[in-house]
Amino acid sequence: xxxxxxxxxxxxxxxxxxxxxxxxxxxxxxxxxxxxxxxxxxxxxxxxxxxxxxxxxxxxxxxxxxxxxxxxxxxxxxxxxxxxx
Length: 85
Known about the structure:
It is built from 3 helices and no strands. It has helices at 3-20, 28-49, 58-83.
């Protein structure tokens, strides 16, 4: 997949991950999309490296979604923790 394909795929994964984690995002939609891109890359590469699926299989989307949700949860946890008085 090309770089542009990964970016588009990451934006889609970020858009799907957002409703799965309702609530306020400290960074807004742009940060959610960037975390979706990073999650797609992280989850996609980890799943392929572990041999769970091959490129182009549906499991790649699920693993990318899991990566995006995990990164979004980690981001929320670290940002909220910094700003608690």
